[in-house]
Structure to design on (718 residues):
């Protein structure tokens, strides 16, 4: 497809066709015009094709896409006398080769989307062409029928004249024509019919009409034939296959009419056949292209949903379904490191292995996305049958795949759904399988997981929260509560930790554990963290203006996420907000988790060191929960250790756990040796607070002192 910048729009402002459309119409005319029987000149015919090209281009780029206009194009081509046997393949061949190239729209289609739409338009054109040709054929057939009936009726008065007329029509007709008596014995055939059946006149005339059965006959064909032979029906029309002498199948558009004598008694049956074999094969090919993946030759997403919708339909006898939704683990890394050509070969190999696992009766394996495959089982006898299929798929992928001389390991995660079809929609089934697949991936991959309604509900809730996060930040749904930090030597309030909350319109007030991981994952943590920082500094400034905290201004602690820690604007954003409110750097402390700070190298720690040099406090949060070497504390730009509550829980009991006492005492001693202050979290009893004070802890926070609350409720002392 040519790029959008170079592609003309489907309709220009002047009403003249753009160059791409005119060029396509010229190519189309050059291919089709010699095979037409039109009375139009070549320029007139080309102008006619320009109008049809506009309709195709508009349909190709319409959203939502609808292939129906293609039927009208097929109808219009028949009306223009493009009816020779070579016309339809040439019409569709030009569309297949050049439509996407010359007829771009205002928005650019993906290659796969363009090919799919083009194939469906070809299918619609073929259907419209076939329908219009059938109508024209039917009209010709009626003319032949009238001529034959007239010839039989007037035979007594003008035998020679009518016989000559009938024989001329009979002999020279392009349609296959046969005459049989009312017992079904074939009396006469024309050359066209004999050629349709392979050129053997004896093979055709030696048979009775009732002998021409075929396994693919429509259920009603012989009922209609019986009614006509009994004189209960005047004619019928149907698509019917026949076996040729060479073993191939002849597909015909068959019309059979009853011929009566002058007394009105049934005398003969007149059959007229149009050979539609090539047209049918073309339609089947277009249908196959529209419903199968071009790379792996597996059924595609469209055919999968068609079968799934059929299985879930109340009109079917299916009561249960099983679904295995498979996604390759780490496939993106293969594409990125080895290239898409290797990735495509890997997908082909995976498809072959999976097909060997899911090729049984009432099973369908499809590729529905880049590296996503799904196996559908109709009416599985038990859940075990579905899980066994999932395990077979994992086992089939266990051996390395040889691609271009490289051995690639393949791992996959599979979501398994099995259950009754009642009141389910295809989108609900696939969503459940998709959620379950990601649960299997989160558990380490290379495994399958069974769908669980509770897990689905949690995942849907996470998805809803993730989707709503940007609007929540824009709509001021977040607010901050403050938990005081108590100086243990005298019980005064030296500051407060800012804790963000989300006032969700549906779920109520949500704590940070519900949305901070989602914000971290989506990257929204950066603007959210910037908002929390500014709001907390503004609040500290307000406390300072109001004189809360006395001579020494209150400090505000703000949590910093790992993604914020690595953001290039961290220092500039922090300095800017302090300068905006004229707050000294010492009034702000940034809390960074132990794991995030210890994992950071010297380059990543540089922003924290710059802030520490400006006077901003740096607290090592959740200390003791990570895997840090205590000696590494010397290289960190921290001024405070925040001891995790797990170390102080043993101090709530009486007597206190001696091991916990020794651990806390050792950490406090080490911190003070390194000139670090110690803040303890989770203080809940007076005895616990007293022991921590005796152990030398500098400050504390917890429900014993105060729960998080609005800034106006911050206590001045405890």
């Amino acid at each position: 497809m040519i790029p959008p910048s170079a592609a003309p729009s489907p309709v220009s402002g002047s009403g003249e066709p753009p160059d791409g459309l005119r060029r396509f119409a010229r190519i189309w005319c050059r291919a089709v015009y010699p095979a037409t029987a039109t009375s139009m000149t070549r320029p007139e015919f080309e102008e006619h094709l320009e109008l049809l090209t506009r309709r195709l281009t508009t349909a190709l780029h319409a959203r939502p896409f609808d292939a129906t206009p293609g039927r009208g194009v097929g109808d219009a081509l028949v009306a223009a006398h493009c009816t020779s046997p070579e016309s339809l393949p040439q019409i569709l061949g030009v569309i297949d080769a050049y439509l996407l190239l010359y007829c771009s729209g205002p928005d650019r289609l993906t290659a796969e989307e363009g090919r799919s739409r083009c194939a469906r338009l070809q299918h619609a054109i073929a259907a419209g062409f076939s329908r219009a040709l059938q109508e024209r054929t039917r009209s010709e057939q009626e003319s032949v029928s009238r001529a034959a009936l007239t010839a039989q009726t007037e035979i007594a008065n003008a035998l020679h004249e009518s016989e000559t007329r009938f024989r001329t029509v009979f002999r020279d007709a392009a349609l296959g024509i046969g005459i049989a008596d009312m017992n079904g014995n074939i009396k006469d055939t024309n050359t066209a019919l004999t050629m349709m059946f392979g050129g053997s006149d004896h093979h055709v005339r030696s048979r009775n009409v009732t002998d021409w059965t075929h396994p693919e006959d429509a259920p009603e064909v012989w009922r209609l034939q019986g009614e006509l032979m009994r004189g209960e029906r005047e004619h019928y029309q149907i698509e019917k296959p026949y076996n040729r002498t060479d073993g191939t199948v002849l597909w015909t558009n068959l019309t059979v009419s009853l011929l009566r004598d002058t007394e009105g008694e049934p005398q003969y049956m007149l059959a007229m056949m149009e050979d539609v074999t090539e047209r049918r094969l073309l339609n089947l090919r277009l249908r196959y292209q529209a419903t199968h993946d071009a790379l792996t030759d597996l059924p595609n997403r469209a055919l999968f949903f068609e079968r799934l919708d059929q299985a879930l339909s109340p009109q079917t006898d299916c009561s249960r379904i099983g679904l295995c939704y498979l996604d390759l683990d780490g496939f993106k890394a293969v594409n990125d490191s080895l290239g898409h050509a290797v990735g495509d070969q890997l997908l082909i190999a995976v498809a072959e292995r999976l097909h060997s696992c899911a090729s049984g009766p009432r099973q369908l394996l499809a590729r529905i996305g880049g590296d996503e495959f799904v196996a559908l089982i109709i009416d599985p006898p038990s859940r075990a049958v579905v899980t066994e299929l999932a395990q077979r798929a994992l086992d089939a992928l266990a051996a390395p795949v040889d691609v271009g001389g490289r051995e690639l390991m393949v791992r996959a995660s599979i979501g398994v759904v099995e259950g009754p079809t009642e009141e389910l929609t295809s989108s609900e089934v696939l969503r459940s399988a998709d959620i379950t697949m990601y649960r299997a991936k989160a558990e380490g991959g290379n495994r399958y997981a069974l769908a669980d309604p509770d897990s689905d509900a949690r995942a849907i809730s996470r998805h809803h929260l993730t989707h709503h996060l940007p609007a929540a930040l824009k709509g001021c749904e977040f607010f901050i509560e403050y938990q005081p930090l108590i100086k243990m030597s005298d019980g005064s309030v030296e500051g407060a930790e800012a804790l963000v909350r989300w006032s969700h319109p549906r779920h109520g007030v949500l704590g940070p554990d519900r949305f901070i991981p989602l914000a971290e994952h989506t990257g929204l943590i950066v603007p959210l963290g910037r908002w929390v920082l500014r709001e907390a500094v503004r609040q500290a400034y307000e406390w300072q203006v109001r004189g809360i905290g006395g001579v020494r201004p209150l400090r505000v602690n703000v949590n910093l996420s790992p993604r914020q820690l690595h953001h290039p604007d961290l220092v500039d954003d922090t300095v800017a907000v302090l300068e905006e409110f004229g707050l000294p750097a010492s009034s702000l402390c940034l809390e960074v988790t132990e794991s995030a700070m210890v994992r950071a190298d010297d380059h990543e720690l540089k922003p924290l060191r710059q802030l520490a040099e400006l006077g901003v406090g740096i607290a090592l949060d959740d200390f003791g929960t990570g895997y840090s070497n205590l000696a590494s504390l010397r290289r960190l730009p921290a001024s405070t250790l925040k001891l995790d509550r797990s170390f102080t829980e043993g101090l709530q009991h009486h007597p206190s756990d001696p091991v916990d006492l020794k651990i806390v005492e050792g950490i406090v001693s080490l911190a003070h040796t390194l000139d670090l202050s110690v803040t303890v979290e989770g203080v809940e009893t007076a005895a616990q607070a007293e022991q921590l004070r005796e152990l030398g802890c500098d400050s504390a926070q917890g429900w014993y002192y105060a729960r998080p609350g609005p800034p106006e409720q911050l206590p001045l002392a405890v």
User: Anything to note?
Assistant: The radius of gyration is 40 Å. Confidence is low (pLDDT under 50) at residues 1-16. The longest strand covers residues 249-260.
